[in-house]
Amino acid sequence: MAERGENGRKNDPQQTKEDILLVATEEFSTHGLAGARVDSIAEKTRTSKRMIYYYFGSKEGLYLAVLEQSYRKIRSLESDLHLSDLEPEEALRTLISTTFDHDEANPDFVRLVSIENIHHAAHMLRSEAIRDLNVSVIETIAGILERGFDQGIFRRKADPIDIHMMISAFCFFRVSNRYTFGTIFRRNLSDGDTIERHRGMIADAVVSYLKS
Amino acid sequence: MAERGENGRKNDPQQTKEDILLVATEEFSTHGLAGARVDSIAEKTRTSKRMIYYYFGSKEGLYLAVLEQSYRKIRSLESDLHLSDLEPEEALRTLISTTFDHDEANPDFVRLVSIENIHHAAHMLRSEAIRDLNVSVIETIAGILERGFDQGIFRRKADPIDIHMMISAFCFFRVSNRYTFGTIFRRNLSDGDTIERHRGMIADAVVSYLKS
DNA sequence: CAAAATGTACTAACTAGTTCGTATGTCAAG
DNA sequence: CTTGACATACGAACTAGTTAGTACATTTTG
User: Do B185 and A161 touch (CB under 8 A)?
Assistant: First the structure.
């Protein structure tokens, strides 16, 4: 373990990198790529600016590392839901709840994606790791839709990517636009009752759409 | 009219201001608040940086002016649809189509709102002009929902702000996240067929939700 | 002429990135 | 187990370039 005495220094590269990434995630997500300050990140770290460049090469390199790490964190959560064991409608509602809760619990991630969109997803394009991720979600949805249609539960044959977009849009918007929306309509979207109502709402909307 | 000869100067404050705002809208929307460069805006203008500070005081002042102008532009479009003349379902579908087309046609506006959210809507809070805008939409929706419920067309009593959010989320997300979404799923959301399909999709989803 | 509008050239502060030197860990040879 | 040599990890201070904002002079307009 890397304990550090009053003044002595202990080398702990892994910890140093993680420390930088943690601080940088917060900084980039609250100030954007251009608005983030490397000096400000360095200050909040237990290490120095030198180390940021030592490990990540440049400000953009650090930003990309932050982005990749954020996407990687989700990957794990999405996998093990075992949705094929459930009835189609139940499976869909479970998937929607999971997406909803994920976005609600990870505003930093949502903000980073917003920032990335402002930059035309330029960094994401360069990272192959990120692109291969969400593909599995589509296959999961496709399976649910097919089963539901065959069983006569869903009357509509919908495109799985479209359904995924509809779900994402609602869950993402609630978090990404909570400040402007909250300001205009004087409503706190993080309020407990509102969260419950919205979680049910998007599920009902998608299900009723597929059944109609 | 402010024609300018080979070398002579003609004062035209109105035109100068509009020119700056137009260029600034583009710059802020593609680079964000911190990423935008005042010098870059000045260059693309027929006037100088001096004028930006003369009329808008500061970079933030210019940003706020851009934001206010963008919101003001929508106000006019939303008003005259005469939705109360239509049957509830028809009125709702018309409103949804209008919102959809507006966001699709104004990516700059969508991006500015995204940027404003990254900054916790801090500038919007200071501008009273902006806050009073979207209130009318809610009243419109409330009227439609009430009529629809009374006529037995809608079986669900929904909150008008929630319905507005559901519509906005879908229409906004398609534009705000088109780059990351497009990159991950290799799908062009500005494609003609996709636009048509999505426009119908959000309308069907909202209507079927209210009818269920 | 006075006030409003504009252009040129400048500056003070900031900021990404670097230079140079030091400390720490490791591993092989004694 | 100690020594010492080499690579990795680190810190403080510096730099070159950028950027928001300004001082001052000049022109236009009423």
Answer: yes
